[in-house]
Design a protein that fits this description.
Elements: E1 2-3, H1 11-30, H2 47-52, H3 54-57, E2 61-74, E3 77-84, E4 87-94, H4 95-98, H5 100-108, E5 115-124, E6 130-141, H6 157-162, H7 164-170, H8 172-193, E7 198-199, E8 205-206, E9 218-221, E10 226-230, H9 235-243, E11 248-256, E12 268-277, H10 281-300, E13 304-307, E14 310-313, E15 319-322, H11 323-331, H12 341-351, H13 363-374, E16 383-389, E17 398-399, E18 402-413, E19 416-423, H14 428-445, H15 455-462, E20 468-474, H16 475-483
Parallel strand pairs: 4-6, 7-11, 15-16
Antiparallel strand pairs: 1-2, 2-3, 2-5, 3-4, 5-6, 8-10, 9-10, 11-12, 12-20, 13-14, 16-18, 17-18, 18-19, 19-20
Helix pairs in contact: 7-8, 8-10, 8-16, 11-13, 12-13, 14-15
Amino acid sequence: MDEMINDALSEEELAEQARIRREKLQKLTDEGKNPFVKVSFDATADSSAVKNGFENYEGKTVRLAGRLMSRRIMGKASFSHISDRDGLIQLYVRRDDVGEEDYASFKKDYDLGDIIGVEGYVFKTQTGEVSVHCTHIEMLTKCLRPLPEKQHGLTNTDIRYRQRDLDLIVNPEVRQAFITRSLIFREIRSFLDGRGFLEVDTPVLTTLEIGAAARPFKTRHNALDIDMYLRIETELYLKRLIVGGLEKVYEVGRIFRNEGMDAFHNPEFTTVELYQAYCDYFSLMDLVEDMYKTIAQNVCGTTDITYQGTKLSLGQPWERMTMKQAVKKYCGADYDLWASDEDARACAKQLGAEVPEGDRATKGHVLIALFDAFCEDKLIQPTFIYDYPVENSPLAKRKEDDPAFTQRFEYFICAHEFGNAFSELNDPIDQKQRFIKQVEEKRAQEKDCKAQVDEDFITALEYGLPPTGGLGFGVDRLVMLLTDSATIRDVLLFPTMKPKKNSV
């Protein structure tokens, strides 16, 4: 009898299988073999070590533990597979070796999905498959629900995201994606630590709703009887640390934004923000290029990758364009020919571009709108876009030779923004004025907005922030890129989901 992970079953069939499994559990419990009382199993090896190091393990006794994923019953002997964190390994279970009682239980009481422990010696079958000839077998945990069918895995995305544990059990490629995610985090930290950056952590809960464009999640601190907000960035605290003299800091931080959801956005996500004293935005371009190249090489083994069918080269020099140059290149509009805001708005109208600010739009607002409308989707290979208008860069230092623009860049890959960097504004007077304007605009747009100027940050700036470069990038998007994942939900273990209605 061949037994694999079950084919697609109806709800009634699934319920019946679950009932049968509970009956088996009761039988085991009645016999004094309740698997849920097991507290440990002394495994001496794992599937990967045994298979990859067969020459060292051949004929030797090993103890393995894992989830029962297949079973082929053949009278007095059976072949099975168990899965551990590193993959599958075959078991050969024979009645004469494990004993009649344990073998009978293995045939009747065990189900696919059960966690089992085995002891036996390592050998190769006639087909050349590395296997374990079991001399002992025991159930460690009973699986009370049938697993999805093996051939097609778990394909329903709603179930996959809601029940990531099940997704990881039956879809090995998903498990590998999250192993890769962990490696990416390790490489980020290794890269920054190796360049003298200090990892820090800053508050997640804040007392202020700041004027930034992102909408925060609001909560209540009962003991203090005040409203608090989940952070939408780590920036202001980190720059205060630069003021304090730490000079090179970074944070791998969870960020929360009460906004829409799509393939590239989740309400909570992970960013890396770093700040370096005595460094400008051009230096950070070099750092970004080097960092992405290093991470790709160490994680993927190459700097030439494919994302959703598009071949990308992270190792070649990245293109660099000002926003003005990009707009001129991709839609023909020349910022330098606009004599007034009215000219800019007329140009946008002629090109059919919508400018959110309407009649209040400045030349800078129009430039931003044209870039969004005509340029971003053209930026496939890694590209830096720099020198952003001051209108959408409240924390960036102005260009000394052109104060309408700031020392800011974003970088794009496959038509998506991956990170954002500034030469940081360190003039406390200019900064406060920009904060005030930002707060006023946000309050005008949002009816119940309670945005405030962060006076503590302004006070810190008044003590003196040295010339500083700052960079922030989304780790989840980087993971998407290096695992060839189409949506951010595929690289978040537990993405935000709308709760299912309770049937009770």
